[in-house]
Amino acid sequence: MGKALIIGAGGVASVAVHKCVQNSEVFEEICIASRTKSKCDELKAKLDGGKTKITTAQVDADNVDELIALINEVKPDIVMNLALPYQDLTIMDACLATKTNYMDTANYEPEDTAKFEYSWQWDYKERFEKAGITALLGSGFDPGVTGVFSAYALKHYFDEIEYIDILDCNGGDHGYPFATNFNPEINIREVSANGRYWENGEWIETKPMEIKRVYDFKEVGEKDMYLLYHEELESLAKNIPGLKRIRFFMTFGQSYLTHLKALENVGMTSIEPIEYEGKQIIPLQFLKAVLPDPASLGPRTVGKTNIGCIFKGKKDGQDKTYYVYNICDHQECFKEVGSQAISYTTGVPAMIGAAMVMTGKWNKPGVYNVEEFNPDPFMEELNKWGLPWVEDFNPVLVDELPEEAKESELVR
Ligand code: NDP
C-alpha cells in the first residue's frame, strides 16, 4: 500500500514500528528516523527480514530544513511524529513544504511553558487544506482512542452526550519507588500542572490533585484517581455537540505522589532554567536523566491498565449511560513487542491512525482530531491489533462515588 516515515525511536515509536511491521499490507515500507540513529538501527535489526522494508536515518526534528531534505529523500505517504510534543510544529512545517500527510500523539508544547493546548496546531488548518494534505492530531490512547470512543458513542448510542468522564487507570507495578511510564518530562509537566475541567462552556481550574475519587476498575480493582487536565478535553469540548461537562481522571499510587511532592518541593520539577557550574540546565530535564528510562520498565512491570470513557446523555428522550474501555496487560505487551502497556496503548493507535490516513479512510485535507472522523473502521482495527474494547451499559458513575479527602498530597 505505502510508505511511512516514523520520527522518534523511543517507547511509543518502538511499539508503533512493531505494529507497522505486523501490518505489512499497509506499511510496505517504513523509515525510522530519530536524533539518535543507533536506536533506529536497533529496532531495524530486531524487526528486519519480514515483508515490510525498513530503512533508518538520523534527523534533528527541531530543524525544518533537515526534515524537508529527509522527507524529499524518503518520499513517504505520511510522517508519523512519535518524537516529543516540542517537535510538532517543525514537523508540520516540513509536511506542508513537501505536501505530505502528518500524524502525532500529543499536542505541541513550547519548551519553556506547559500549556497543553491545540491552538498552535489548529492554526495550520487552512494551510493543510490548501496543500491538500491531512494532519491527524492526537492518535494515541488518550488523546486518541478516547476521542474515537466518544465519536463511536455519539454515532451509535446517543442523540446527545451531556457528560463524559475519561478514566485512565494504570494498575501496573514496576517495583521502583518512583519512575514514569512515558517520557518523564512530559509526564511530570502534566501531573504537576493545575487540574482543569470543562463545564457549561467554561473551564474550571483546580489545584493539582485536588479532586480525588476511588474507583473500582474491572480487572484491576480499587484505585485512587485524581482529576487532571488532559489535552483531549479541549478538542472534545469543541467537537461533541451539546456537551455539558467533560473531566479526566488518572490513577496514581501513594508512593508516586509522595516522591513527586518531595521533588517539587526541592525544585526538581521546574522548567525554569538555572545556572549550574557555568551551564544553564533545566531541573526537570536533569531529573529525566537520572530517572529510569521508561523503555526499561517493560520487563519489570506487572498488572493491567484500564482506560476508557463513561458517557451520560439522551437517546430517544431517555437518560442513557455507556462505558467503553480497554484492558491491557503489561506482561502480555512485553511478550509481544518488548514494551510495557503505556507505550503499547499509545503505539498501537498511532499505527492505526496512520493506516486510516494511508488507506484513505480518514483522508480529508486540513487539520483534525480523531473524533472528527468516522470511528467505525478505527474501532474495528483496535480489536484486530491488540486493544480490544469492552462495553458496559450500566456502569458505576463517578458522580455516584463518595467524595474523598479534598486535601491530597500535592496540594501545597
Ligand atoms: P521517548 O522519550 O521514549 O521517545 C522520544 C523519541 O523522540 C526519542 O527517540 C528521542 O530521541 C526522539 N526525539 C526527541 N527529540 C528529537 C529531535 N529533536 N529530533 C529527533 N528525534 C527526537 O517518548 P515516548 O515514546 O514515551 O513518547 C513519544 C510521544 O508520545 C510523546 O510526544 C508523548 O507525549 C506521546 N504520548 C502520547 C500518549 C497518548 O496516549 N496520546 C501517551 C504516552 C505518550 P533520543 O533517543 O535521541 O532521545
Automatic annotation (TrEMBL):
<feature type="domain" description="Saccharopine dehydrogenase NADP binding">
    <location>
        <begin position="5"/>
        <end position="136"/>
    </location>
</feature>
<dbReference type="InterPro" id="IPR036291">
    <property type="entry name" value="NAD(P)-bd_dom_sf"/>
</dbReference>
<dbReference type="Pfam" id="PF03435">
    <property type="entry name" value="Sacchrp_dh_NADP"/>
</dbReference>
<feature type="domain" description="Saccharopine dehydrogenase-like C-terminal">
    <location>
        <begin position="140"/>
        <end position="386"/>
    </location>
</feature>
<dbReference type="Pfam" id="PF16653">
    <property type="entry name" value="Sacchrp_dh_C"/>
</dbReference>
<dbReference type="GO" id="GO:0004754">
    <property type="term" value="F:saccharopine dehydrogenase (NAD+, L-lysine-forming) activity"/>
</dbReference>
<dbReference type="InterPro" id="IPR032095">
    <property type="entry name" value="Sacchrp_dh-like_C"/>
</dbReference>
<protein>
    <submittedName>
        <fullName>Saccharopine dehydrogenase (NAD+, L-lysine-forming)</fullName>
        <ecNumber>1.5.1.7</ecNumber>
    </submittedName>
</protein>
<keyword id="KW-0560">Oxidoreductase</keyword>
<dbReference type="InterPro" id="IPR005097">
    <property type="entry name" value="Sacchrp_dh_NADP-bd"/>
</dbReference>
